[in-house]
Amino acid sequence: MSLPLSHPALSATDPELAALVAAEERLQSDTLRLIPSENYVSQAVLEASGTVLQNKYSEGYSGRRYYEGQQNIDQVETLAVERAKTLFGVEHANVQPYSGSPANLAVYLAFAEPGDTVMGMALPMGGHLTHGWGVSATGKWFRGVQYGVRHDTGLIDFDEVRELALKERPKIIFCGGTALPRTIDFAAFAEIAREAGSVLVADVAHIAGLIAGGAHPSPVPHADVISTTTHKTLRGPRGAMLMSREQHAKAIDKAVFPGLQGGPHNQTTAAIAVALHEAAQPSFRDYAQAVVANAGALAEQLLARGFDLVSGGTDNHLILMDLTPKDVPGKVAAKALDRAGIVVNYNTVPYDPRKPFDPSGIRIGTPSLTSRGLGTQHMAAVADWIDRGVTAARTGDEDALTAIRAEVAELMAAFPAPGLPTD
């Protein structure tokens, strides 16, 4: 598929960079994107991200700035905040964090002191670096203790979580992660946090769109603080939000600014406002439900082809598979699938004997393909491509990968992606 010139000013000023953008547009257009943390944003979100709001510095918060000329910026940020509060049903929202990791770091600044004990899911079990893992600043500046999943089921063992929390008494407990294919039991975490005297933080970066669309239970009745990125399933720009009960509003706001950041990225705030407006529409609920339905259908098709799925399947948008029975390392499979036009990421699986940079598994998800309009009727073909691609990775059959690549491009041409130029 050839795409028309879509950035004339950029092409005139910097043709080298413009060519790279065009190449990325083509790549995103004709490949099957299965990385669960990626998505397509709408043209409206893209346009908001590139406005003259980029030109304005706005340290502080609406009505309380350290720069003048904020008449319009204040309204933009207030719009985003109010939309977040309404969509998620929260008492307070801060839309200024630059991304998910700084948002989580602001939580530490708000509720803990360096050296305090914090608790989160271990990274190899599906958690996130910023939940106190050792190589992260959060694991170096704080004393991180980690819980995991059961070896036999791949599910969180809440008896273990409770025992660990009561023993360690962490200041903060994180729930949520980056490779969790099952519904998060926020109520169970909240009960443990109350008993341990801990602040419960629900990191819903991956599932925020599912929550907004009613396809996953909300943490709002249970968590003290909710941290999320604004892309992934929420289909917004690369940014983040912190939401909380009113009693924590001052601590959260102070931690974000001036604790960690200077001026917010106003063009991103505007794009967040657009994404939240889109997520409040009935069609977004249909989208969130379709994401989950597609993931479930894809999991069933993969199981039928002999794939080993962590926890046996999925409740959300994400599937984590252990390729050990297929006799292919995750990294080898991911790179082969990429050559076949199927974009995934290699990923550790619970109790993985291999190293993180060369793990046993791959992680896939359905947000992007659902945004393009693919439905459950297409998941057998997707599973078949994955199966053939993994087999080709094991045997070194590049011709098979080339054939899959052509089939993928043909289907993608029938389902144009939001926000991308079309013929």
UniProtKB/TrEMBL annotation:
The lineage of its organism: Bacteria, Bacillati, Actinomycetota, Actinomycetes, Kitasatosporales. The record marks H231 as: Plays an important role in substrate specificity. GO terms for molecular function: glycine hydroxymethyltransferase activity. Its EC number is 2.1.2.1. Gene3D superfamilies: Aspartate Aminotransferase, domain 1, Type I PLP-dependent aspartate aminotransferase-like (Major domain). The modification N6-(pyridoxal phosphate)lysine is found at K232. PROSITE patterns: SHMT (PS00096). It catalyses: (6R)-5,10-methylene-5,6,7,8-tetrahydrofolate + glycine + H2O = (6S)-5,6,7,8-tetrahydrofolate + L-serine. It is found in: Cytoplasm. Residues 10-386 form the Serine hydroxymethyltransferase-like domain. Pathway: One-carbon metabolism; tetrahydrofolate interconversion; Amino-acid biosynthesis; glycine biosynthesis; glycine from L-serine: step 1/1. Its cofactor is pyridoxal 5'-phosphate. Homodimer. Catalyzes the reversible interconversion of serine and glycine with tetrahydrofolate (THF) serving as the one-carbon carrier. This reaction serves as the major source of one-carbon groups required for the biosynthesis of purines, thymidylate, methionine, and other important biomolecules. Also exhibits THF-independent aldolase activity toward beta-hydroxyamino acids, producing glycine and aldehydes, via a retro-aldol mechanism. Pfam families: SHMT. This is Serine hydroxymethyltransferase. (6S)-5,6,7,8-tetrahydrofolate binds at L123, G127, H128, L129, E246. Keywords: Amino-acid biosynthesis, Cytoplasm, One-carbon metabolism, Pyridoxal phosphate, Transferase. Belongs to the SHMT family. Its main location: cytoplasm.
